[in-house]
Design goal:
Helices cover about 0% and strands about 45% of the residues. The protein is built from no helices and 6 strands. The strands form 2 sheets. A 4-stranded antiparallel β-sheet has the order 3-2-5-6, with no helix packed on it. Strands 1-4 form a two-stranded antiparallel ribbon.
């Protein structure tokens, strides 16, 4: 998600791209949600594989300042990016 979208429906599709310079490492992801512009974060999904996940919107607090964060991990190193 690039930001600025109006979200509605039963699920929010969060997508991302990631890579690992070490050959053979499998990446797993954790998705977090912040209803307050990044002040606080809650886990929306963890141990995700692939490059997208449908987050159940009934578990999300409505907000005009909401953000998603995706953490990528190869089991040793991790990094994240926010929407």
């Amino acid at each position: 998600m690039a930001g600025g979208q109006v979200l509605d429906g039963a699920a929010v599709e969060v997508t991302w791209t990631a890579s690992d310079p070490d050959p053979g490492d499998t990446l797993s992801y954790m998705i977090q949600y912040s209803p307050d512009g990044g002040q606080t974060w809650m886990v929306a999904a963890q141990n995700v594989t692939g490059n997208s996940f449908a987050v159940d919107s009934s578990n999300l607090v409505a907000s005009s300042q909401a953000r998603f964060r995706v953490w990528a991990s190869d089991g040793m190193n991790s990094a994240f990016d926010d929407s």
